Amino acid sequence: MPGAVVKVYYGERRMIYLNIECRLDRLLPFLPIECRLENLDEVVDLVDVAGNIQRLPERDPGDEAEVYLQDNGKYILCSVHSESEGRKKYTPLMQDVQSMFPGFVLETERAEVEAAAA
To answer: In CA terms, which of 27, 34, 88, 117 is 20 to 30 Å from 20?
Structure first.
């Protein structure tokens, strides 16, 4: 088994082990294929179970994934869509995230709640 791996959750409580000892330009195109997404050209990213977006597509494609992902970490696959004003919308590609990871809230949603409360 490879030295540095993470668990990636997606779909209906599906999970894959992902070797992170590779470059991002290899890892990111591999995820839609391995997770059997309908749209293989979909831009994807990983979010840790605390809701922190890793922003891997924005990183240098030649960087090693293990620089950004924690060995033995748990991540949720999400899609990335561009919105107006350069904003991005992140959507978890795991059904019923809350049942497996209670308290899960994307960092973008936390920021919106905090801004509304201020």
So the answer is: 88
Side chain identity at residue 14, one-letter code: R
Residue with tokens 């209906």: 12
- How remote is the C-alpha of 40 from its chain's centroid? 15
C-beta contacts of 80-89 below 8 A and 24+ residues apart? 80/43, 80/44, 80/45, 81/43
For residues 17, 23, 26, 29, the Cα torsion angle rounded to the nearest 10 degrees is 80
Q: What is the pTM of this model?
A: 0.88
> Among 1, 3, 4, 24, which residue's Cα sits nearest to residue 73?
4
Q: What are the pLDDT digits (tens) for 90-107?
A: 999 999 999 999 989 998
Q: Are 53 and 90 in contact (CB under 8 A)?
A: yes
